[in-house]
Amino acid sequence: MNSNTQLSPCSILLLAGGRGQRMGGQDKGLLEWQGQPLIAHLHRKTRGLSDDLIISCNRNQEKYAAFADQLVQDDHADFPGPLAGIRAGLAVARHTHLMVLPCDVPQIDASLLNAMREAASQHPDKPLMVRQGEHWEPLLCVIPTALAAAFESAWAQGERSPGRVMRKLGAVALQCPENDQRLANLNTPELLSQHNPVPERH
User: Fold this and answer.
1) What are phi and psi of 170, to 5 degrees?
2) Per-residue pLDDT at 38
3) In the beta sheet, which residues pair with residue 172?
4) CATH (domain of 172)
5) How many helices (DSSP H) and strands (DSSP E) are in the chain?
6) Which of 13, 75, 93, 134 has the fewest beta carbons under 10 Å from its own?
């Protein structure tokens, strides 16, 4: 973890604000995997990386509060999607960069989190997105908070895709292998029950 001390501090946003459609309407971040809520796994992986841990949640705030320094929620009703949560995170982030992670990737590891931060530090004015094979992963990204106004402008113009906003802003890719198990989205009850943890890589 020595590399962390050489990197500028970043805020971290954990996205737990969705409708939970694939989970039958349940609050995804609070569903258990390997004996703990998904949000607890992400908290454990990220707590040591930031003194500004933000969770975007639209319900069960009292349960999420134990895992965060700040809570944010969408400023529009009816679950308008992850871009709303990202905007809310950018508005309150205390550092120059905001790392964004979804709550349903509990197998993400320290080496990938550090690689995201290091790659972002090499392009400090541009968003960084993970790219898995040929597929962008816009909810695994690092965004300069100076770009908050650009995100607000895109939202006001009707844009709802975080990936499109970041690509228009010249997003840099952090390439990961296709089918990287660290990025597996455990976003259905079946996937939660099937997946076993992968060994942590530092």
Assistant:
1) 80, 40
2) 93
3) 128
4) 3.90.550.10
5) 7, 9
6) 134
Nearest-angstrom CA–CA distance, 53 and 95: 11
pLDDT value of position 119 = 96
Q: What is the pLDDT of residues 141-181, one digit of tens each?
A: 999 999 999 999 999 999 999 999 999 999 999 999 998 88
- Total count of domains within the chain: 1
Query: Is the confidence at residue 28, as pLDDT, over 90?
Result: no
Angle subtended by helix axes 110-122 and 38-46, to nearest 10: 60
Dihedral sign (CA 25, 65, 104, 91): positive
Is residue 124 in some structural domain? yes
In a domain, 199, yes or no: no
Asked, for residue 202, whether it belongs to a domain, the answer is: no
User: Domain containing 163: what range?
Assistant: 2-194
pTM of the model: 0.88
Residue 8: inside a domain: yes
Say if CB 24 and CB 187 are below 8 A apart. no
